[in-house]
Structure formats: C-alpha cells, structure tokens
Amino acid sequence: MRIGLFVTCVNDLLFPDTGRAVVTILERLGHTVEFPADQTCCGQLHANSGYRAEALPLARGLARAFAGYQAVVAPSGSCVAMVRDGYPRLVPDDPAVAELAARTYELSELLVDVLGVTDLDAAFPHRVTYHPTCHGLRTLRLGDKPHRLLSAVRGIELVDLPGAEECCGFGGTFAVKNAAVSAAILADKCAAAAGTGAAYLAAADSSCLAHIGGGLTRRRAGVRAIHYAEILAATE
Amino acid sequence: MTYGTGQISAAEPFPAAAGAALADRQLRANLHRATHTIGAKRAGVVAELPDWEQLRAAGAAIKAGVLARLPELLVELEAAATAAGASVHWARDAAEAGRIVADLARAGGAGGDAPVVKVKSMATQEIGLNDTLAAAGVTAVETDLAELIVQLAGDTPSHILVPAIHYNRHQIREIFVREMGDPPADLTAEPAALAEAARRHLRRRFLTAPVAVSGANFAVAETGTLVVVESEGNGRMCLTLPETLISVVGIEKLVPRFADLEVFLQLLPRSSTGERMNPYTSMWTGVTPGDGPRQVHIVLLDNGRTATLADPVGRQALHCIRCSACLNVCPVYRRVGGHAYGSVYPGPIGAILSPQMTGPGSVANRTLPYASTLCGACYDVCPVKINIPEVLVHLRQTGVDAARGRPSVQRTGLRGLAWLMRGRRRYAVALRAAGLGAGPLRLLARRRGRSAARRLPWPLSAWTRDRDAPLPPGQTFRDWWARDRPG
Fold first, then answer.
1. Sign of the dihedral defined by the CA atoms of residues B65, B68, B70, B76, in that order
2. Measured distance CA(B361)–CA(B227) in Å, rounded
3. CATH architecture of structural domain A127-233
4. Could you please report the per-residue DSSP string of B86-142?
C-alpha cells in the first residue's frame, strides 16, 4: 500500500526518531511510505487555543498536501483526533478536509485495523509501562490496539501504570497558562511511572511524552519516555 | 442580553485561585480520596447497565428537545401547576428571585425565631439566597448534612453533590463543636456520631419552621409536578412539614412528560452518588388538601439561562442535571477543588456554565474555559452527553474573536507561528533555524550528560520551571528525508 506519512510538526522538529520509526515499521511490512513535503501542522494548537481563523488555512493546507493518498498515518493520537474530530467542526464545508478525515489513521489503527497485523517482528528486552494519552483513549478509542502491538514484541515486559487513564496534565497551552496545576498533575503521573519499576514509559503522543519525559528527567526518576513506534521499530 | 448574577461569578482569575488551592495539602488529600471513591462507585454501577449508552442518548435528546421549545413548555408548566393550586413566579436574575422568596417567606410567617428550613439546592446557592433572607430578618437553616457543615463553618460549597468534600471527618467534628451551639458533650469524629449530632440539631428546626425552601431536580411540564431526589430524608421533612413551600427552579429543569422521568431517575443517581437508586424521591403537584404544605410556590429562575440558550454550541451546557460526575473524574478539579472556580458550579461543567451565564464582562470568568487540559474524561461520564471539551474550545474561540484588534503577546506569537506554518519553504527554514539555534544548548546539555534543557529563557521558561525541555536534535525529519534517507 502507498501510505502518506503525516509526521506532525512536533516530531519533525523535536523527535525525528519517531518519524523514522514509523517509516521502518511500514517498510519492513513491505509498504511504500511517502512524505509529502507540503505538510506542516494540523492546527490543533491554534484551534484549541481559540485561534480558529489561524487554524483554518492549516487544516485546508494539510488536506491539500495529502490529496490522493489512500491512507495517511500519523504517530500522534491528538493530531489524528484533530483531523478526524476537530476538522468537521472547524471546516464543515470543505469536502477535501472531510475526505482527509476519513482516511487518516493513528499508527496502531493503521497497523491493526487496516493492515491487520499485530506482530511486527520487533524485539525490545526491557520493562515498559504504557500511558494511554487522552485523545487516543477517548476521542479515537484506540482501546487495546497499542497494547496488542506491544505485547507481540519479543523480550518486552509490559507492566500496568496505576491511574493510567488520567491525563498527564499537558493540555497544550494549559501547561503554561495553568502551570501550577499542570505540574501537580504531572507529579502524580511521574510518581506512578516510577512506582512501576519500568525502564520506559511509552505513549502514542510526542507532545505528552515531552511533558512527562521532562518531568521524569527533572526528578531523575530512572524512567525514560519513549514513543511506542520506536519500540515497535526496534530489532535485535 | 440579560446575564446572570449571584454566586456564579469569580472574583479571581483561575490560575491564581488554583495556585492557592494547590498549596493546601490537606485539601488535596481530602479531594483525592473523595473523588476517587465516588468515581469508582459510579463506574461500577454504570457498568451494570447494558443500555447505559442508550439511556445517555435518550437523556440528551429529551434535554435538547426541551431547549428547542422552552417557551411553550414553561407556559405549559405554569398552567398545569397553577391548575393544581401552586403559584408560579418568574425571576429574571438572582436579585429578583431573592426578593420574591424573601417576601413569600415573611408572608408565610418566617422571621425572628421562626426559621426557613432548606433542602439542598444549587439554584438557591446560585442566587445567594441565605444572605438575602438574612438581610430580610429570616434565618435559613440548611438541612442537608454537608450543606449544614458548610453553613456552620461560614464557608461556601466546593462540590455540586458533596459540598463539604474539602473537609475530612476530624475537621467536621471541630466545626460542630465550635459552631453548633448544642453539640453532644462526647462528640467523636465517627461518621455515625456526627450524623446523629446533626440529626438532633436539625429536628427542632424541622418542627418549628413555618416555611421550607427547595430547588427541584425536575419539573414536569405536562403535569406541573416538581421532583426532588435526595439521600438523607431531610428533603422529605422540608417538603411535607412546613405550611409554606417555596421552590426555586432553573428554567432548564423542565422535562416535557411525566414518563421522561424514567430516563433521568436512572441516569442521575448512578452518575451522582454512584447508587442504583437514591433513597428518597419526592414528587408534588400543587397543593393536596389535608396533606403537606398549604401554600406551594414555584419561582422560575432565568439568571443567564436565556443568554446561554442563545449560543447554538454552548447551549448544551443547559442539559446539565447537576450530577457532578464530571468533577470527580477531572484531573484539574481533583487537584484544586471547587473554590478555585469562584462559582457554585465548579469543575468542567462550571467552566462552561459560569462564563456563559454571567457573560463576557467577567474578566475572571473568562479564564475558566482555559482551566482544562481538554482530556475529555468529563464528556465520557456525562449522563446527558454534554460535549464539554467542544464547548470549552468554542468559548475560547468566542473570547479570542471578541478580543481581536487589542494587542496581545500570545496572539502575536500564535499568528506569527501560523504564518510560518502556512508556507512550506519558510516552515522548513524555521525548523532548521530552530535546530541550529539550539546547538549551543545541545552542546551544554551533552557536556553535563543530559539530552534535555533544564532552563530556557522567557517565554519558554514557563515550561522549564516545572520540567525539562526537549532540544531539537540537529536535523529535522524533513531534512533527513530529503538528504540522508537510505535507499
């Protein structure tokens, strides 16, 4: 299958390894991955901060960049939630945008639902705990898909994260507009992660991971934040 | 547009009020325990019902139908209640409702030593009724245990269902000993002992009060029936013993038909107290000769509800049946409690209800739509499917649109960012520049054995105050794709 990679702006600048991991996984499965260079940002930051007028051209631009792809994949629950759940409200009258929403998938959706695979022949001999990020959990309803993919990784020891379904406290501009509350929620998430004894906390959103990972290193918690795509791409 | 007044308008911006609440360790411990306990109970009883999602959809549809034809349903309610012997009054705002109730209470014989007994009611908290009655020389006695605690403490409620959630039982014992006037000499902090002390304290008030004041959970348009659901039986005492009963009812409390209660009497207790059924459900239709109050008054309260109804996206906030399930699951409420929201309606529902009811004039209330991470836990548990994150974002957009033309650092920054993101070339250049610009920081961090930055200059210092910041690693994804990708 010819798959368009929507890497997301956060990964493009800060976490290119996550984008490379998605390419590795899909090419290993025999698919063709393309990166349309016209893509920039989905506009979630602007729309959720109230800047609708600024978000609109970004939504239309993303739809143009990915016109013609049968499937578009993004390693981000919240960016896919923006395209699928946010765009119909933001741009209700644009068929190209509606069409993009219908064929954009979060990585685990593409792998499990569209391509029908769970075993990716990966190996990652470490103890890992998984944090289901809010938009993947409650907007996309990813359910146990990431967990099924991770369970098939050789050598991995998956441990439950207590209070996993509670938000990490990131929330985009919330992290700076309500910095004290964000930090209080983060403190509890970091304590829960450290309590699992895991070496890695995995999740499907790099922005949440930047927030949690920043909290973990600040505390020297001994847990590293990692995008689950990088685990799925790892081999012996 | 006539906006609401009363105890629904914050005095302090949310971030400042939340910061003060976070500093109170006892408060955070009390909140953590209580919200997790109630939340878990709710999840358990909701999971028992195979048709929960259908019930939610039915509840949302009935409420949307009510809002679509509110004027005619209100007239229908007035006609039915009047025919059954009740008197119906209309109040535009908190002050008008307070005046009406105070006049009716005095006419019913309250004042001096004769108190008004109160059923727990959000509408009367909203209009600050106890203060209005006090100014009119009438003592109002809260008879719900938690409301009594809050009243004796001279405090305000911090939760819709559990107004004293911010106190533990030891603090409650102290309040009783200090403020009750007639506490048992050997009062312990055992819940049963505290409840018994409250029971004895209240019993004398029930027997002497000529007037009761209540709200209503539901008002049935076709029959004129009011409904109160409660757990302690204090409501039943108030609704049946005094000669005069005055009920303050928000105009969105309507259901069209009596049969509609079937849906809500399942949704409310499971969402609210986490019970399959609440212990007491009282219904009354006007006056029944020889039974219950002889004077029955209904005060229909607008107080900003019509203004809220005018917004096609925001009006779903009026579906709310005050169950408080959204508070118990909210990561923000769980840490800061109710007082930080500056309104009797706290938590996620308060963050969309208070600013809409009071209008854009309240500066502090304008910070409420931002008091959320948009995690969506509130929407998931809402029994009437209020899409709270959608309304929060909508209110942010309305606020931003209204402020266009006024200078703002944030707007300048976000507009600049959007401009960069609209053009592929300048976007790629900006990413590359950010990666290069971070070079010295990267070097510094690496020398100290780290990959993240501990301190960044303003405005990024807001991020690094509480957590490290990731640094861009030399090459962007797009540059790697274009130049170094193998194959």
1. negative
2. 34
3. 3-Layer(aba) Sandwich (3.40)
4. -EEEEESSHHHHHHHHHHHHHHTT-BTTBPEEE---HHHHHTTHHHHHHHTT--EEE
Contact A218 B467 (CB under 8 A): yes
Count of A–B CB contacts within 8 Å?
A: 188
- In chain A, where does the domain assigned CATH 3.40.50 lie? 127-233
**Other CB atoms closer than 10 Å to residue A171's CB: what's the count?**
27
* Domain boundary assignment for chain B: 52-305, 424-484
What is chain A's pLDDT, residue by residue, as a tens digit (236 residues)?
A: 999 999 999 999 999 999 999 999 999 999 999 999 999 999 999 999 999 999 999 999 999 999 999 999 999 999 999 999 999 999 999 999 999 999 999 999 999 999 999 999 999 999 999 999 999 999 999 999 999 999 999 999 999 999 999 999 999 999 999 999 999 999 999 999 999 999 999 999 999 999 999 999 999 999 999 999 999 999 98
Write down the architecture of domain B52-305 according to CATH.
3-Layer(aba) Sandwich (3.40)
Tell me if chain B has a CB within 8 Å of the CB of A4: no
Q: Is A187 helix (H, G, I), strand (E, B) or coil?
A: helix
Closest CB to A12: pick one of B14, B465, B477: B477
CB-based contact A199:A223 (threshold 8 Å):
yes
Chain B CB within 8 Å of residue A214 CB: yes
Check CB contact under 8 Å for A37 and B411.
no
What residues contact residue B458 under an 8 Å CB cut-off, 6+ apart? Answer: none
Interface test with A, best of B333, B375, B401, B468 (most A CBs within 10 A): B375
Q: Is A75 on the interface with B (CB under 8 A)?
A: no
Beta-bridge partners for B141? B117
Q: Measuring CA to CA, how many Å separate B462 from each of A179, B376, B445, B458?
A: 7, 25, 19, 7
Phi, psi (5° rounding) for residue B366?
Answer: -65, -15
Please report residues of A whose CB lies closer than 8 A to that of B28: 184
DSSP secondary structure code for residue A164 in this structure:
T
What are B64-68's contacts with CB under 8 Å, separation 24+?
B64/B316, B64/B319, B65/B256, B66/B252, B66/B254, B66/B255, B66/B256, B67/B252, B67/B309, B67/B315, B67/B318, B67/B319
A20:B477 CB<8 A: yes
A144 touches chain B (CB under 8 A): no
Contact B331 A169 (CB under 8 A): yes
Please name the residue that has the structure tokens 């995690």: B375
CA distance A127 to A132: 17
Q: Which of B217, B264, B212 is nearest to B59 (CA)?
A: B264
Chain A residues inside the 8 Å CB shell of B417: 45-46
CA nearest to B362, candidates B320, B307, B324: B307
Of B380, B401, B421, the CB nearest to A58: B421
Q: How far apart are CA B348 and CA B363, in angstroms?
A: 18
Q: If we measure between CA atoms, which residue out of B389, B396, B391 comes closest to residue B410?
A: B396
Binary contact (B331, A35; C-beta < 8 A): no
Asked if B371 and A170 come within 8 Å (Cβ–Cβ), the reply is no
- Closest residue in chain A to residue B431, using alpha carbons only: A13
CB atoms within 10 A of CB A144: 12
Contact check, Cβ <8 Å, B376/A186: no
> Predicted ipTM?
0.97
